Amino acid sequence: MEEVIRNRKIIHVDMDAFYASVEQMDNPELRGKPVAVGGSENRGVVSAASYEARKFGVRSALSGTLAKRYCPELIFVRPRFDRYKEISQKIRKIFFDYTDLVEPLSLDEAYLDVTQNKKGNLSASLIAQEIRKRIFEEVGLTASAGISINKFIAKVASDYNKPNGQKTVNPDEVISFLENLPIKKFYGVGKVTAEKMYQLGIFTGLDLKGKPLEFLEKHFGKSGTYYYYIVRGIHNSEVKPERIAKSVATEHTFDENLTSEIFMLERLEVIAGELERRLKRYNVAGKTVTLKIKYSDFTLQTRSKTLPYFISDKSLLLETAKELLYQERMKDSVRLLGISLNNLNTEEKKTVAVQLKFDF
C-alpha cells in the first residue's frame, strides 16, 4: 500500500468566476450584475457565470434558455478567449516568480509546488496569500487557493472559502479534514456518484473510509481504488509543469443526465470549441478523434476515427464527433461527454502541458 507523502507543499490557485470576472473588469457596466459568458436566451449553453448569476442557479453547461428562465435579468456576453489567454499569461508569470513547478490545468487554475521555492519562504500559506494579493493588485481579479500536502487536498481546499479566500490543510489535519468532508465535496464525486454513494450509506469521508477496497471496486470499478486512497490522504502525483502530450482532451460531466442526441450535440459543440482553443494554445494538431461517452450507469464507451490528415479546428472536430455519435443509438442517459485528439504532430513540436485528469 502506498504511504502518505507529508513533506510536500502544494498550492492550487483557482481564479474566481474567471471568464465572467474578466468581462466585469473590462466593462464596468457589468459589475455587480448577473453575467453569463456564452450562450443566449434562445440557443447555446453557458460557458461561465458570475457569482451574481450563480445565486439564481446559473452555471456552466446550462442551456441559455434555462439560464434566462432561472435569472430573467441575466446578461449574456460573447466569450473573448484571446483576452482570457492574455490575462492568464499575466497570472502565470506571477506564479513563476515563486517556483518553476507550475502545472496549469486550464486558463484559470494551476498547481504550484512550493516545497523548494524561489523566495525561500517556508510557509506555503503565506506564499499563497502573497500570490493572491499580487494577482489582485497587478491584474485586477480575485483568486482563491488551497494549500496542502498533495494535489487532491489542495484542489478540494481551494473551493472551501471561495470566492477570494484560501484554506490550508496542514499535514496533521489531513485525516480529520477528509473524514469530516461531505462526500459531495470530494473532487471527482459528481452529483450522480454522490447519489449512488448516499444509497450505499456513504455521506462523509469517514463513511467512505469505512468501506473496504473490494466493496468500492465492486460498486465503482477502478474509480473505487481512487476513492479508497484519496480518503486516506494518499495522492502522490507530482506537479509536472511539462509533459509530452500523447493526446489533448476536453470533457464535461453534467449535473443532469442528457436524454437525447439533440442535447448531446449542443454540449459537443461547446466541448469541440474548448478543445480547439486548447490545441491552438499548445500549437498541435492530430489525426485520431475519440468520442467518450459515460452513461448514467457508469459504463464507459469510446468511439474513434482516424483521419488521413491533421486537424485542430472546431468544425472538423465537431463533424467527426457527430459522425461517431450517430454510429449507434444511445443505450441510456448520458452523464459525461468528451472529445480527445490523438496521433499528434508533436515530433516537431516542443513539449506541451496537458490538463491533469483524474480517472473517475
Automatic annotation (TrEMBL):
HAMAP family, per the entry: DNApol_IV
Binding residues annotated for Mg(2+), in chain numbering: 14, 108
Task of the protein = Poorly processive, error-prone DNA polymerase involved in untargeted mutagenesis. Copies undamaged DNA at stalled replication forks, which arise in vivo from mismatched or misaligned primer ends. These misaligned primers can be extended by PolIV. Exhibits no 3'-5' exonuclease (proofreading) activity. May be involved in translesional synthesis, in conjunction with the beta clamp from PolIII.
The UniProt entry's GO CC annotations, sorted and at most eight, read: cytosol
Q: Where in the cell is it found?
A: Cytoplasm
Gene Ontology terms, MF aspect: damaged DNA binding; DNA-directed DNA polymerase activity; magnesium ion binding
Co-factor(s): Mg(2+)
**Which NCBIfam families does the record associate with it?**
PRK02406.1 (NF002677), PRK14133.1 (NF010731)
Enzymatic reactions: DNA(n) + a 2'-deoxyribonucleoside 5'-triphosphate = DNA(n+1) + diphosphate
UmuC domain sequence ranges: 10-190
Please give the chief subcellular localization of this protein.
Answer: cytoplasm
The EC number(s) this enzyme carries: 2.7.7.7
The record's comment on protein family reads: Belongs to the DNA polymerase type-Y family.
Protein name per its UniProtKB record: DNA polymerase IV
Q: Where is this site: Substrate discrimination?
A: 19
Any GO BP: DNA-templated DNA replication
Gene3D superfamilies associated with the record = 3.30.70.270, 3.40.1170.60, 5' to 3' exonuclease, C-terminal subdomain, DNA polymerase, Y-family, little finger domain
Describe the subunit structure: Monomer.
Which catalytic residues are annotated?
A: 109
Please tell me the species this chain comes from: Flavobacterium noncentrifugens
Q: What keywords does the record list, in alphabetical order?
A: Cytoplasm, DNA damage, DNA repair, DNA replication, DNA-binding, DNA-directed DNA polymerase, Magnesium, Metal-binding, Mutator protein, Nucleotidyltransferase, Transferase
One Pfam family here: IMS
Q: Which PROSITE patterns match?
A: UMUC
Q: What class of enzyme is it?
A: transferase
Q: What does the entry's cofactor note say about binding and number?
A: Binds 2 magnesium ions per subunit.
